[in-house]
Amino acid sequence: MEGKFGVRKGAWTTEEDCLLKKCIEKYGEGKWHQVPLRAGINRCRKSCRLRWINYLRPNIKRGEFTADEVDMIIRLHKLLGNRRVHLKRWSLIAGRLPGRTANDVKNYWNTHLKKKLFGQSQFVKTSNKAQTTPRFEVIKPKPRNLAKNLAWMQVRRDRKSVLDNPPQTSAGGEIPSIPSPATLQKSNMTSWWSNLLENSVKDDCQIGTSCSNISGHSEKEGHVTKFIDNVFAQGETMEGYNNTVTLEEEDEHGCWGNLFFDVDLWDPLGGEPNILT
DNA sequence: AAAACGACCAACCGCCGGCAG
DNA sequence: TCTGCCGGCGGTTGGTCGTTT
After folding, report:
1. If residue A259 lies in a helix (H) or strand (E), which one and from where to where?
2. Does residue A150 sit in the same domain as residue A254?
């Protein structure tokens, strides 16, 4: 049970847990290199940090993942899974699931969802070890000019919120008009998006975007204009590809949560636009 | 009853980026 | 600019436990 330099490894004892908890409560999180000494635990700094983050930290949620949580994991993994570098993927997902740790989410994905969603045939061996990695299909925007070809956009509010509270304009009317091909300019798009989004959510919310499909990486935070700018900067459309725009808003307890818009962009020449519900 | 197998998950390992000196 | 340290991350391992044979 002892590793290099005589530090303990393996399962934690209740005594070690108790010492670590008292130490963190006294000195706070951080300065992990000092924790083993302060707590009087013969463990390495990383082991202490991991034990605290994944097990001892207050408000950690145990037990089965709810259907909503699973849905969120799948949606966010779809969104973040196409990043060239998966840095912070699990922690970002866990950040949207109060009480869940990145390790929990990762374990749940690996043991429950990976096989279920991708099936055995889509896994490829990446080395001589019995190690498999899902062969994600890389989704790239079609190399077409957005300003010239994109004409219609529809927005579907996150299931729960949109069905209960359909987007309304400030005047209490219907969803703002979709820009026509003739009028589709950058300024129009920005204005249209802003009108729709800002009239669809609480007044005090902030608007952020996730643009994982644009140039293969994800952009968090920002504004509708940033989303539009990115699209125009790429000079590409996202025809037939679902994107997600994230609306961050604060609840009455001061906790931040997200609403998701599924965005479907398509070429009007391909036929009549479908109204997504 | 016990061996084999599979699922689960806590914990480890190696790598990376940020930062201070 | 370089180097070393630290915090943080994803991928993987291995122990435990329940189920099947």
Report:
1. strand A256-266
2. yes
**What's the pLDDT tens digit per position in A17-46?**
999 999 998 888 888 888 998 899 889 889
Q: What is the pLDDT of residues A225-273, one digit of tens each?
A: 344 444 433 433 333 333 444 444 444 444 444 444 433 333 222 332 2
Which helix or strand (DSSP H or E) is residue A58 part of?
none
CA atoms of A239 and A231, how far apart (whole Å): 12
Give, as one character, the DSSP assignment of residue A6: G
Residue A162 and residue A232 share a domain: yes
Q: Which of residues 55-114 of A touch strand C (CB under 7 A)?
A: 86-92, 102-103, 106-107, 110
* C1' of B3 to CA of A125 (Å): 30
Nearest-angstrom CA–CA distance, A179 and A173: 17
